[in-house]
């Protein structure tokens, strides 16, 4: 029989019998890192397998790899509210924040993380918060939550679970701001090249920028709407579970406004580029039309003199070829004068 361990009267976890007891060291499968945060906000990094799930004065943060099926099974064995467990175990791809029975749970967008840099790939960070426990999970490496880990390791104090949520969202905003700054510089460079460089390269660059703006706006818009709603509806929660949703939403509002401006600017540049390409195409068609019109009369003359019929002019004259060339040249000159008079040639 498994033994149920209480965590400060908050949430109970089922662990194997051999791991029961105050000094037991439970192994949390799929655990990436863990922290125990004291009442003063100081964080202590946990050993492999996590801290013992026993009551203490502070709170605990567990970060899980949700691609590990053992972690999903372990989540199913906890006494978290069923909707919270379902969200951690599910594969939903949209953002959401809920509160139920003194527990806040949901999923928020976070930028992906490569070995040494933040990428533009978007992933979801799933989380469950109680007054004494935070469980986060992801299916791919994420940047903001990793930045929060480094901040705790460097001595930053976080006094409550809601404070950790605030820190993660601030890290999301900072990462998007850094990407937005790079996008602004790239957009300035493309605008400078619009009239001089290869249109194929410009078209591809503007397309990538606009696609990035659309993706960032989609996730920023969803997250700030959630925060505004949570700020309005989450007033009954305990202070330790009530993040500064209003301030976070305001920061995301300004950032989203900047991303929307870049999206519109890239759209206008794309339209200008398309007009430029269309004008180049029209110029090419105009030149081709003029050449066709100038060469059509000589072609007609050539066709007439090429008919194998009796009575053709100059057929018996030794200078007939020269006269044919003169007629061809005169026909082109006449066509040019006529088109020039009617404004067909500028």
From TrEMBL:
InterPro entries: CorA_cytoplasmic_dom, CorA_TM1_TM2, MgTranspt_CorA/ZnTranspt_ZntB. The keyword Cell membrane applies. GO terms for cellular component: plasma membrane. It is a multi-pass membrane protein. Gene3D superfamilies: CorA soluble domain-like, Magnesium transport protein CorA, transmembrane region. Keywords: Cell inner membrane, Cell membrane, Ion transport, Membrane, Transmembrane, Transmembrane helix, Transport, Zinc. Its main location: membrane. The keyword Transmembrane applies. It is found in: Cell membrane. The chain crosses the membrane at residues 287-309, 321-339. One of its GO terms (molecular function) is magnesium ion binding. Belongs to the CorA metal ion transporter (MIT) (TC 1.A.35) family. PANTHER family: CORA FAMILY METAL ION TRANSPORTER (EUROFUNG), ZINC TRANSPORT PROTEIN ZNTB. This is Transporter. It comes from Rhodopseudomonas palustris (strain ATCC BAA-98 / CGA009).
């Amino acid at each position: 029989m498994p033994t149920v361990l209480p965590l400060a009267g908050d949430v109970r976890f089922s662990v194997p019998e051999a791991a029961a007891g105050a000094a037991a060291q439970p192994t949390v499968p799929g655990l990436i890192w863990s922290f125990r945060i004291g009442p003063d906000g100081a964080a202590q990094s946990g050993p492999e397998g996590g801290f013992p799930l026993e009551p203490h004065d502070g709170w605990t943060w567990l970060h899980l790899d949700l691609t590990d099926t053992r972690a999903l099974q372990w989540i199913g064995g906890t006494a978290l509210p069923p909707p919270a467990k379902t969200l951690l175990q599910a594969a939903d791809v949209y953002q959401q924040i809920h509160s139920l029975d003194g527990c806040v749970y949901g999923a928020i967008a976070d930028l992906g993380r490569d070995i040494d840099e933040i990428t533009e790939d978007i992933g979801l960070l799933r989380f469950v918060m109680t007054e004494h426990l935070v469980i986060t999970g992801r299916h791919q490496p994420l940047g903001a939550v990793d930045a929060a880990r480094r901040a705790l390791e460097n001595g930053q104090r976080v006094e409550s679970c809601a404070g950790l949520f605030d820190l993660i969202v601030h890290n999301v905003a900072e990462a998007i701001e850094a990407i937005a700054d790079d996008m602004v510089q790239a957009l300035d460079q493309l605008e400078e090249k619009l009239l001089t460089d290869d249109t194929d390269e410009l078209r591809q660059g503007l397309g990538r920028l606009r696609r990035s703006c659309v993706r960032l706006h989609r996730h920023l818009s969803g997250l700030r709407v959630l925060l505004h709603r949570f700020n309005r509806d989450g007033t009954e929660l305990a202070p330790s579970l009530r993040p500064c949703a209003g301030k976070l939403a305001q920061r995301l509002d300004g950032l989203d406004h900047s991303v929307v401006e870049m999206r519109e600017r890239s759209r206008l540049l794309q339209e200008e580029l398309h007009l430029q390409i269309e004008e180049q195409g029209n110029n090419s068609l105009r030149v081709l039309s003029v050449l066709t019109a100038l060469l059509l009369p000589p072609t007609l003359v050539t066709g007439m003199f090429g008919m194998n019929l009796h009575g053709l002019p100059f057929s018996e004259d030794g200078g007939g070829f020269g006269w044919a060339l003169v007629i061809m040249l005169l026909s082109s000159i006449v066509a040019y004068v006529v088109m020039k008079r009617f404004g067909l040639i500028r």
